Amino acid sequence: MKVGVFGGAFNPIHLGHLSAASEVAEKAGLERVYFVVSARPPHKGDHRMADAGSRYRMVELATEDNPLFRASRVEIDRPGASYTVDTMRHFREKYGDDVYFILGQDAMEDVGSWRSASTLLKTTNFIVVTRPGYDPSALIEILNGVLGAIYKNIRITQVDVDGDGVTRTMRVEGTVSTISLTEITPLGISSSLIREKLARGETIKYLVPDAVERYLKVEGLYRSLPGKGAISA
């Protein structure tokens, strides 16, 4: 089975997440996509997050009507901070090597700062979603510059180039791990936008699935104003 792993805080999950996962799955031929909810993201303080149980429940509600999607508790149930290298090891042990980590180009450019980045790059296939304002043709140079300053044994090489001269597939030299770029339709929705709207008492209809909207109303998440107990980030 060809599996995608889409990690994030999902604070809260919204239609942009779901649309991106659906497009990536279609273009990459993924047979299942796991939405992995971060319990304790290493780069974000707990005060900036709704609790992990609430975020996981919203992911369950958002994905329950799509047989391709699954919510995953792997990081919630693991003690300590959440690290991608451990999560991807979990999914490779379960499904083999045909597993792909899905992330945005902005996050990929910062991969050198991640825990055990060298191990992660040597063992993980990546699907990188291009984002407005980021130059996909420059990714290979950015990665080699960032990684070369930290690791002597990591180099990204070009595998496939499209008709516009943009590198679409890369490989971590000396491994079978690939980095593929995928362009998707940007929706312009963010979790921070939804939190801000809820804090101001504005509607979030058509930004999140109906079931998530109902859950947020019942639970009253993100309603406080910034600076007065709001969960914001």
In angstroms, what separates the terminal alpha carbons? 36 Å
Overall mean pLDDT score? 89
Helix-strand string: EHEHEHHEHHEHEEEHH
- The CATH class assignment is Alpha Beta
CATH-derived architecture: 3-Layer(aba) Sandwich
Strand arrangement, major sheet: 3-2-1-4-5-8-7-6
Sheet/helix structural class: alpha/beta
Q: Output the CATH topology.
A: Rossmann fold
Major β-sheet annotation:
8 strands, mixed
CATH-level-4 superfamily name: HUPs
Total beta strand runs: 8
Q: How much strand content do the residues show?
A: 15-25%
Helix content: 25-40%
- Give the total of domains: 1
**CA-atom Rg in angstroms:** 18 Å
The general outline is globular
Tally of separate helices: 9
Low confidence ranges: 225-233
